[in-house]
Design goal:
Radius of gyration: 22 Å
Number of domains: 2
Strand content: 25-35%
Structural class: alpha+beta
Pfam families: F-box, PP2
Largest sheet: 9 strands, antiparallel
Low-confidence stretches: none
InterPro entries: F-box-like_dom_sf, F-box_dom, PP2-like
CATH superfamily of the largest domain: Galactose-binding domain-like
CATH architecture of the largest domain: Sandwich
Organism: Davidia involucrata
Protein name: F-box domain-containing protein
């Protein structure tokens, strides 16, 4: 119709259009005008950017003070992951896509000899999101594993898996003498030298590997992630494990 523009669209139609874009696009729309901001910031739009099962996920966390708006919740989860699963797992969102980020805390991992105080020590750190972290005293066999149900992750998404840790005051030793063995799901063993990178939250990480979470693996309900070094029997010490993170790759 001649002379018509976006302002003539009903609110429901306008919100539907914005919800088919992306969170960053919605933020751009909100800068255009006051009326556009009302539509772009509405729950009708941001509810579509949140994972469809987010209420079930955060509903298990009775200590979470949920923001009033869907956009506020999205922003909060993209900057400050919340604890779920009795505090043993964290849930957040990738800022640009809204896809899920999950981290299994150290207590949720399979760590060989984790309950032997000669090898591992369970401590608390104020900078950790979890109540307990695992400090390595010394081992000759290093073997850490995580298992996660695929349905808990975002579908049709490539995920990277990362061991998240930091050095003790004494520093680590023994990890750079031989390559680490890394396994993700049904992929072949990969070998990688010990070369961690620093994270924005002050911890360090090593990428264990990646996998594509799609419908073709419905018969494989879980993905297992393994990082180990057991072949050289060298003494290893000096790291504190916070967890293993499953994070969408760009």
């Amino acid at each position: 119709m001649e002379g018509s523009n976006l302002n003539d669209l009903p609110k429901d139609c306008f919100c539907e259009i914005i919800s088919l874009t992306s969170p960053s696009d919605a933020c751009s729309w909100s800068l255009v005008s006051r009326i556009y901001r009302t539509y772009a910031d509405s729950n009708d739009v941001w509810e579509r950017f949140l994972p469809s099962d987010y209420k079930d996920i955060i509903g298990s966390n009775s200590n979470t003070d949920h923001p009033e708006s869907s956009k506020a919740l999205y922003v909060r989860l993209s900057h400050h992951p919340i604890l779920i699963d009795d505090g043993n797992m964290s849930f957040g969102l990738e800022k640009r896509s809204g896809k899920k980020i999950l981290m299994l805390g150290a207590r949720k991992l399979g760590i060989i000899w984790e309950n032997n105080a000669n090898y591992w020590r369970w401590i608390s750190l104020p900078e950790s999101r979890f109540t307990e972290v695992a400090e390595l005293v010394e081992v000759w066999w290093f073997d850490v594993r995580a298992r996660l149900e695929r349905r808990k992750l975002s579908e049709m998404t490539t995920y990277g898996c990362y061991l998240v840790f930091k050095e003790t005051e004494q520093g680590w030793s023994g990890f750079d003498e031989r390559p680490m063995e890394l396994i993700v799901g049904l992929n072949k063993i990969k070998y990688l030298t010990w070369a961690p990178t620093e994270r924005d939250d002050g911890w360090m990480e090593i990428e264990i590997g990646d996998f594509f979470n799609d419908d073709h693996h419905r018969d494989v309900a879980e993905v297992e992630v393994v990082v180990r070094q057991t072949s050289d029997y060298s003494r290893k010490s000096g790291i504190i494990i916070q967890g293993i993170e499953f994070r969408p790759k760009q």
